[in-house]
């Protein structure tokens, strides 16, 4: 009756909570900012004082609809808010306002790219999304020594919860799904996607079943894992644990587990609550949320090109490699910047060269810098530098020095070149004078060179470079030295 690991398959469904980038909270006008002094971004509404009433933040609705549309989820023109009741010190109302029976959107999908079993070929897989709904966040408990403190700044922060169908088959797929989801939300300006600060968090539901079985196994839910790496590890561990348990004659029980990243294990936290434990009922203080066709269309228009489409276009339209397209589109600001360069350039320099400049020079300079500034040099200015190098008026190495200087001083390329006297010496007269000087200083070597000892050619080019502090245009220097040898044999 025993099988081995290969006779099982994993079934995973993810519930993602993502904070929305609104100025104010979901149902009050408190600022929605991370990192303020505890309990300073609060008001009677989010403190749950008696007699207050919530008001729906339309900006949060707009962002939620935007995310839903980008994830191909159907928008429900009428949706309802509901109270999810539970007791916890960070939840002053004793309930969370969420959506339950009629969410703002349901039935969508996200296409992800994963690898096949051989890990050699990329394949696309569609992960169905059950729903995206709006809710508010709870506050936060801070434990110091043997005391616990409550910070209610986060209470009432707008969230979307995005629930996948159990279509995910491995830890790697889960990670690909999360990365793609996060990328889209950040691109659209819906969320900052910050996992460390908890503005993008994920609960993973994991079960296993014998291959081919139609019925799903009993699942465990792993709560709030705060990095992509840990999500993968937690899921991998949990799959192993459940298979071992079954192979040893045990039974998986439905429960909530916590991942311990130090030990790399999951631990039982509590029995899984059922929906009825929350005593859901419709929020009596809020009207139904009714969305007009015009509102939905207006949001639709605000959706810009998504990263996956952008990557495909960079490959087909700009003829870039998959790798270049990937690097350039990872950050929307960088992609926008690259496209500004292309516009500014209007066909003069090859697009591939522009891409190389951004990837090899600009991005690596930015990595060296601490600041998070994504647009450090304006496109026109950067293009001026690229043109100067590609046309040979300064050499490539000098170009790098100029770029570093542009980033630190904010000056333009031409200013720096002029100031530091960095232009390449490529005028014939200037170079001829230098060749004459070098020959005068190395009479014997020149006689040998002119007599046919061509090995010395490199030595002379080196001397010319030294004299010009590396600014001689190497091609020009070669030509003029050759001519000089021919004329002085
Ligand atoms: P709950 O309301 O208890 O959280 P849901 O039915 O909303 O339960 O499902 C929550 C998540 O669990 C969804 O992402 C769903 O895909 C996933 N899920 C449901 N059943 C299973 C299962 N047997 N194995 C793995 N994931 C599952
Ligand atoms: Mg749930
Ligand atoms: Zn408030």
Structure description:
By secondary structure, this protein is an alpha+beta fold. It has three domains: 8-295, no CATH class; 307-419, no CATH class; 428-487, Arc Repressor Mutant, subunit A. The chain has helices at 58-70, 171-187, 228-247, 293-301, 307-316, 322-329, 332-345, 351-368, 379-390, 396-409, 413-419, 428-441, 443-450, 456-467, 474-487; strands spanning 8-19, 74-75, 78-79, 82-85, 95-98, 105-115, 122-136, 140-144, 147-151, 158-164, 200-210, 220-225, 255-260, 265-271, 281-282, 289-290. It has a nine-stranded mixed β-sheet with strand order 2-6-7-10-1-11-12-13-14. The chain has a three-stranded antiparallel β-sheet with strand order 5-4-15, with no helix packed on it. It is elongated and about 100 Å long. The structure holds adenosine-5'-diphosphate (ADP), magnesium ion and zinc ion (ZN). Zinc ion binds at residues 25, 28, 30, 42-43, 45-46, 156.
């Amino acid at each position: 009756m025993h099988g081995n690991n290969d006779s099982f398959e994993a079934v995973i469904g993810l519930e993602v909570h993502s904070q929305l980038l609104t100025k104010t909270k979901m149902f009050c006008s408190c600022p929605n900012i991370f990192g303020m002094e505890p309990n300073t971004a609060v008001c009677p509404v989010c403190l749950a004082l008696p007699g207050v009433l919530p008001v729906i933040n339309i900006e949060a609705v707009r962002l939620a609809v935007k995310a839903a549309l980008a994830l191909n989820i159907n928008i429900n023109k009428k949706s309802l808010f509901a109270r999810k009741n539970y007791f916890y010190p960070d939840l002053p109302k004793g309930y969370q306002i969420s959506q339950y029976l009629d969410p703002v959107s349901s039935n969508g999908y996200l296409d992800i790219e994963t690898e096949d079993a051989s890990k050699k070929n990329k394949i696309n897989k569609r992960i169905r999304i059950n729903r995206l709904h709006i809710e508010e966040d709870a506050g936060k408990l801070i434990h110091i020594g043997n005391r616990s403190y409550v910070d209610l700044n986060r209470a009432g922060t707008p969230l979307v919860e995005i629930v996948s169908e159990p279509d995910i088959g491995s830890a790697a797929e889960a990670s690909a799904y999360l990365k793609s989801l996060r990328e889209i939300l950040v691109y659209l300006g819906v969320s900052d996607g910050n996992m460390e600060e908890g503005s993008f968090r994920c609960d993973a539901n994991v079960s296993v079943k014998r291959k081919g079985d139609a019925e799903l196994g009993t699942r465990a839910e792993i709560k709030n894992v705060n990095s992509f790496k840990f999500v993968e590890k937690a899921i991998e561990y949990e799959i192993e644990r459940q298979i071992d348990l079954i192979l040893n004659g045990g039974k998986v029980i439905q429960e909530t587990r916590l991942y311990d990243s130090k030990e790399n294990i999951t631990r039982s936290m509590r029995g899984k609550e059922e929906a009825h434990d929350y005593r859901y009922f419709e929020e009596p203080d809020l009207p139904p949320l009714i969305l007009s066709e015009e509102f939905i269309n207006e949001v639709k228009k605000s959706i810009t090109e998504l990263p996956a489409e952008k990557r495909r276009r960079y490959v087909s339209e700009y003829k870039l490699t998959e790798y270049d397209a990937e690097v350039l589109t990872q950050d929307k600001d960088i992609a926008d910047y690259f496209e500004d360069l292309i516009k500014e350039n209007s066909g003069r320099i090859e697009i591939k060269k522009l891409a190389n400049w951004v990837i090899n020079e600009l991005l690596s300079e930015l990595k060296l810098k601490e600041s998070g500034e994504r647009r450090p040099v304006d496109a026109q200015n950067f293009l001026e530098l690229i043109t100067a190098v590609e046309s040979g008026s300064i050499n490539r190495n000098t170009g790098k020095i100029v770029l570093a200087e542009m980033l630190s001083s904010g000056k333009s390329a031409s200013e720096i070149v002029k100031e530091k006297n960095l232009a390449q010496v490529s005028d014939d007269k200037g170079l001829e004078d230098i060749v004459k000087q070098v020959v005068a200083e190395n009479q014997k070597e020149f006689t040998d060179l002119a007599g046919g000892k061509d090995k010395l050619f490199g030595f002379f080019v080196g001397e010319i470079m030294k004299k010009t502090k590396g600014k001689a245009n190497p091609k020009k220097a070669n030509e003029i030295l050759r001519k000089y040898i021919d004329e002085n044999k």
